[in-house]
Amino acid sequence: MMECKVIFTIARQFGSGGRDVGKKLAESLGIPFYDKSLIQIAAKESGIEESLFHSVDEEPSNSFWDALTINANIFGSLTSTYSSMPINDKLFIIQSNVIKNVAAKESCVIVGRCADYILRDEPGLIRVFVHGKEEDKLHRIIHQYGVPEADAKGLMVKTDKKRSSYYNYYADGKWGRAENYDLALNTSALGIDGAVELIKRYREIKCNK
Amino acid sequence: MMECKVIFTIARQFGSGGRDVGKKLAESLGIPFYDKSLIQIAAKESGIEESLFHSVDEEPSNSFWDALTINANIFGSLTSTYSSMPINDKLFIIQSNVIKNVAAKESCVIVGRCADYILRDEPGLIRVFVHGKEEDKLHRIIHQYGVPEADAKGLMVKTDKKRSSYYNYYADGKWGRAENYDLALNTSALGIDGAVELIKRYREIKCNK
User: Fold this and answer.
1) pLDDT tens-place values along chain B, 209 residues long
2) CA of B138: how far to CAs of B13, B22, B128, B184, B195, in Å?
3) Which of A7, A16, A205, A207 to mutate to test the interface with B (most CBs of B within 10 A)?
4) What is the distance in angstroms between the Cα of A63 and the nearest Cα belonging to chain B?
């Protein structure tokens, strides 16, 4: 039904409901939605164990992983520069290619994983950042994600720190800075449905320009 | 014509066209628009020389101003805590009161001057941040604002630094971080008119909730 190809990337604070916004947006437009599912595709396409992708998902390179001895066979067919890379960086490259491939095919929604940066040259890109008030995020983390109240704040801070380091390590800008996104939204002010509606309106304006 | 009172605050990168967005938005909704004009009101209401407000406009406290001996008569009627404040802080308080007063009256658009932070408890507040690609901002600075090409980049960087320090000094958050705003927009992607249209749509969603 879409005359105009658009790739939505959704970066989001933990607990902001950004994933829900992306999922509802994709459903409402009838286009594919990708989040952790990208990992399955990346694992399948690369032949690398899915659990390895999960263990470094949205985490930047660090000394632990840098020091890890990698099974040389996995990367044996690649260049020597590539072989000497930390494993997170290799998985990042594999996942980047998966992201570029799904984006090349058709309109879609991609959550997290630096997709806004990876797809920065894509003309149909709409880079969204979703955030919210701390009290609303904690409420969602506890009541919707089922995290015990005592752990919610710590998990929220830690998850955003990880996302931020991952982004700041691989992308050019700083995670959460407005200038990296075409549209940044506050779900505490708009609600999930309001956010979806506004993003759809953004798409219409962009497609009718 | 507006059934629902809304105060739009527009923070903006220099050259992004944020002021134009605010002005067009105000015109289109038939509501007052405030930017530097707030200074005239502040000067008139406080009896302080307008040039003094201009000289510290969107600049944080600094040692130069801190060291300045202020005419004691100006602040004579105020508390001693207030009297010992740096002059920028006093002017900030005076201007904050002007901003609160104009916002209390009716729907309006206010550009810059930490209005998003000053009005943070206002229920009808919509905090907007406007940014753009460097090349587009430079083009606007040179061709629309008439700044010589050789000075454009320096002025852009310096102006944003000033705005950022002013905001970071007086507000709680960091200028330009998505989480401080309800809506952050990229005029390079949307254009001025597209930005105005999206902000109006935001208002409709908020008012119909």
Assistant:
1) 447 999 999 999 999 999 999 999 999 999 999 998 888 888 888 888 888 877 777 776 654 444 444 444 444 444 555 566 777 888 888 889 889 999 999 999 999 989 999 999 999 999 999 999 999 999 999 999 999 999 999 999 999 999 999 889 888 889 999 999 999 999 999 999 999 999 999 999 999 87
2) 11, 19, 21, 20, 19
3) A205
4) 29
- Token pair in block for residue A96: 């980047």
CB-based contact (8 Å) between A183 and chain B? yes
Find chain B residues with C-beta within 8 A of A183's C-beta.
Answer: 183-186, 198
What Cα–Cα distance (Å) separates residue B98 from each residue in A108, B82, B106, B110, B175? Answer: 46, 17, 13, 11, 21
Q: Which helix (H) or strand (E) holds B149?
A: helix B149-170
Q: Which residues lie closer than 8 Å to B50 by C-beta, 6 or more apart?
A: B39, B40, B43
Asked if A209 and B197 come within 8 Å (Cβ–Cβ), the reply is no
Q: Read off the tokens for A160.
A: 């955003």
**Residue length of chain A:** 209
The pLDDT of residue B124: 94
CA distance A36 to A19: 11
Answer whether B121 touches A (CB < 8 Å).
no
Q: Under an 8 A CB cutoff, do A194 and B209 touch? A: yes
List helix spans (H) across chain A: 18-29, 37-46, 50-55, 63-67, 80-83, 87-105, 115-118, 134-143, 149-170, 187-208
